[in-house]
Amino acid sequence: MNAAQHIEPRMTQVMDWSAAVWAGILAGLAFLGFLAVVAPQLGLFNEWVYLRLIASVPLGQEVLAPPATFDAKVLGAAIITQLLLSVSFSIVIAFIFHRWGLVIGILGGALAGAALYVINFWALSYFFPWFYAMRGVDMLIGHILFGAVAGGIYEALEADEFEVDDDGEILSA
Hints:
Number of helices: 5
Strand order of the largest sheet: 1-4
Largest sheet: 2 strands, antiparallel
Low-confidence stretches: none
Mean pLDDT: 87
């Protein structure tokens, strides 16, 4: 290295795990609210059908049998399953988009939500065949909103922290 060059440390932004978890919880609750209030107005199903679909992941397809009415076990399983999945997906969204700010967090989160819809209702229907019947615009909108809310809340709550890379870049003076 000659005298005209020096090593400049490179800073990278660190993901805020707490913000990612809270974003997942809040976006998951927003998704449940959307399914319970708005989606029944858009689709063919009542709110209990949507909640039973979520609860069918841990409880099996037996919970989908009519009547689609209140069941405390189904409601508890749906809430716990949704929150666990929401936190997991929110961590992925935060990991991908945490460096670019609020607008990219919302837009990127919305795109990630659309991708999540494709994964859930096209790929995972191989393992959960009863998901196939629930594909529709209401679930697509719900997943897009989930991603946008998760990305936006993460960026709003994120504490900007940076760490120095050990590698540093060599810059010309």
